[in-house]
User: Which sequence fits this backbone?
């Protein structure tokens, strides 16, 4: 198949570095985005891929902060202008039409959080190319999507949702078909236990590692409360984030992390903490599979998808789940005190995701779904 991704570039430095490292076969996506690994898997299966960046390409990674900023106010005003009256959006949509007509895709793969491509443009592409339209996203359309995104719901031939409840929301918005397929997975060549030298281990080591986003607090309050409970209990917590961090947790911040650096950080921790955002009630975020791929023990919030994708194997857990902060602190302390149990659980999790949750398997499932 010829697959055209419609996406927003968030980490331009990472993409430039990845393309410079592989000039003979430059990747479309930076390794800090899950689409990078899906790209590799789809190419291995013989598909031809291209990407259309639907956002003005940023000069550097955007750092999110709490509270109002001039940039947020400008963006809010910009988003209130109807697309048909916004010259920048009109130009982007014209470029996409020309790009799609030249590429002639069989599948248009819309990465979530579209704020620029209009339903009229998508409908025209479907008429011109007869391509199937896929929407793939790991976030809630109620919380995150804009009117321009929701208005196109009936055009999507297939919605791929990591979270079951998000898929139901897309069906309620008019999408004719939804399938639950975690967009995250692992690539054993990349998501693995990284060998660290003594200096790296000293720099990165901590009892509990967290890599991710914590702002705005109304979207990540469950993470914040849980991390604050661990810190208050005297547990050594290391936090890495490319964005701002709430004041109460800034003493734990160790820096930013993307791509291979993130996997090194995960490899250095004794235990990784992974609570989903407030908008996720089924489960299936990126870190769930990436931590397992790193061969590190993980404790996550108790959600249906977490239990479904990480079952007990021969009666033994592949990760631990917690129900409240007291449960989290107690289980964290117990696991940190039992090196053998922690290592064994990490090994089970790694073997499990290598067998059941690779991007090659996600690509195979996608092929089966889109062929119907």
Assistant:
């Amino acid at each position: 198949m010829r697959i055209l991704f419609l996406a927003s570039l968030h980490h331009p430095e990472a993409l430039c570095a990845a393309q410079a490292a592989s000039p003979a076969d430059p990747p479309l996506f930076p390794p800090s985005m899950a689409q990078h690994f899906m790209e590799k898997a789809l190419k291995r299966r013989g598909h031809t891929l291209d990407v259309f960046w639907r956002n003005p390409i940023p000069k550097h990674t955007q750092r999110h902060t709490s509270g109002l900023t001039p940039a947020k106010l400008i963006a809010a005003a910009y988003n209130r202008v109807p697309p048909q009256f916004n010259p920048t959006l009109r130009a982007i949509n014209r470029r996409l039409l020309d790009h799609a007509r030249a590429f002639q895709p069989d599948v248009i793969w819309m990465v979530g959080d579209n704020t620029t491509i209009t339903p009229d443009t998508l409908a025209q592409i479907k008429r011109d190319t007869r391509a199937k339209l896929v929407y793939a996203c790991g976030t809630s359309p109620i919380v995150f999507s804009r009117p321009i995104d929701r208005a196109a719901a009936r055009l999507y031939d297939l919605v791929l949702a990591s979270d079951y409840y998000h898929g139901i929301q897309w069906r309620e918005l008019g999408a004719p078909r939804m399938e639950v397929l975690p967009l995250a997975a692992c690539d054993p060549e990349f998501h693995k236990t990284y060998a660290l030298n003594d200096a790296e281990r000293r720099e990165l080591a901590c009892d509990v590692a967290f890599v991710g986003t914590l702002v705005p607090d109304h979207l990540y309050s469950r993470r914040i409360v849980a991390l604050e409970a661990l810190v208050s209990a005297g547990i050594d917590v290391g936090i890495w984030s490319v964005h701002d961090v709430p004041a109460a947790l800034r003493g734990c911040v160790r820096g930013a992390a993307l791509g291979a650096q993130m996997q090194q950080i995960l490899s250095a921790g004794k235990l990784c903490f992974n609570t989903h955002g407030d908008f996720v009630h089924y489960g299936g975020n990126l870190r769930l599979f990436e931590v397992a791929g790193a061969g590190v023990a993980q404790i996550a919030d108790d959600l249906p998808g977490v239990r479904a994708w990480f079952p007990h194997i021969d009666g033994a857990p592949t990760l631990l789940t917690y129900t409240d902060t007291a449960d989290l602190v107690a289980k964290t302390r117990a696991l940190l005190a039992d090196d053998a149990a922690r290592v064994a659980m990490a090994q089970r999790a790694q073997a499990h995701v290598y067998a059941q949750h690779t991007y090659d398997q996600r690509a195979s499932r996608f092929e089966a779904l889109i062929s119907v």
Summary: The CA atoms of residues 113 and 348 lie 34 Å apart. The longest strand covers residues 2-7.
